Amino acid sequence: MPTILGIESTAHTFGIGIVKDGKILANVRDMYTTESGGIIPIESAKHHAKIADEVYDKAISEAGINEKEVDAIAFSNAPGLAPCLIEGMKFAKKLANKLKKPLVSVNHCIAHLEIGRITGAKDPVMLYVSGANTQIIAYETGKYRIFGETLDLGVGNFIDTVARFMGLGFPGGYAIEKLAKFGKYVELPYSVKGMDIVLSGIQTNIKQKIEKLKLHPQVRDINKIKLMKKRKVVQSSGLSVNSSQKSEQSEVNYSLADLAFSLQETVFAMLVETAERALAHTGKKELLLAGGVACNSRLVEMCKIMCAERGCKFFVPEKSLLIDNGSMIAFTGEILFKNGIKKKPEKVDIFPRERIDNVEISWK
Ligand code: ATP
Ligand code: FE2
Fold first, then answer.
1. What distance in angstroms lies between residue 271's CA and the mean position of ligand 1's atoms?
2. Ligand 1 in contact with 10 (CB < 6 A)?
3. Model pLDDT for residues 140-156, shown as the tens digit of each residue
4. Domains of the chain with CATH codes
5. What confidence score (pLDDT) does residue 75 get?
6. Which residues of 214-243 are buried (b: 16+ CB within 10 A; e: fewer)?
7. Pocket perturbation via mutation, ligand 1, pick of 159, 289, 316 by most ligand atoms within 8 A of CB
């Protein structure tokens, strides 16, 4: 049984996982984060270069192996931010040359889906919800086919942008989920077109509501954010309140928490509706949730309810395998390697814009 080391570097995370016979021996990751503002590709790449050796040493020690036991090095070569992909490839090539082992190029999106096999799902409809991607996918005749997708923003990037308007830092998904627990429903636009969704109109609507709130901040919101900061749930609120503003509170009848709650209820309902349509269309009986946004417990709950009502099985991997990680690259790399897919270091390249439905799936 081969031992495969997998390197993830496509965006904010540098991760190394080690897998043997479908079992995860190590999963170490380090994430580039910011207190305000979004991801700066070149800064994220610098983060990866700085942290790579440390993550590697930790992964080897966590797996309890000697590096000479590694049979191949898998790395995510597509899609992603070019500077980040280049850092990952540089590290993979360095390692391949040092250990005299082949490289296995892995499409990052396919890795997010393939790791779902670990849950026992056999032939699912996949709701892939991550930073840049939001797609409803199923495997049909040699390819992962996209049945529906966002027509503009990835749902994770959408949530991160809203979190940034709120001053919650990057990434914002976890902070939005926590804030949503204090909220109640306010109406937001709902935008489903067949099996596709559109998010930019909702984002503009929320942005306008936040701008209004910044002029009239709600004391209870500020207190909640302070409480969350104390509990280290959010990094920085970006909002302040003074006595003259306090007196204007009554002019808006919603809070940041209400917007976070309503964002989740609205956008996740759109995702679940389109996933259900894909289940009906394909006749498949399993739903697999994949990608970082699948860490959200409200989305998981809504998917479970829909699947129970349809008599479908629902699968979601554990959180450490949802957010970008090296294990999903190693896990997919092992499948490819066992099917004879490997390359010499001088033959590999990066493909920042490769789409999942362009990849020929020769291993299924
Ligand atoms: P892609 O896979 O499309 O290239 P990515 O690799 O940047 O995108 P992932 O690491 O899979 O994305 O997921 C990161 C995203 O998941 C971020 O946008 C983050 O805010 C979001 N996320 C993480 N936890 C939660 C949560 N609890 N609720 C909602 N979103 C979350
Ligand atoms: Fe990802």
1. 15
2. yes
3. 989 999 999 999 999 99
4. 3-116+321-358 (3.30.420.40), 121-319 (3.30.420.40)
5. 98
6. beebbeebbebbeebeeeebbbebbbebee
7. 159
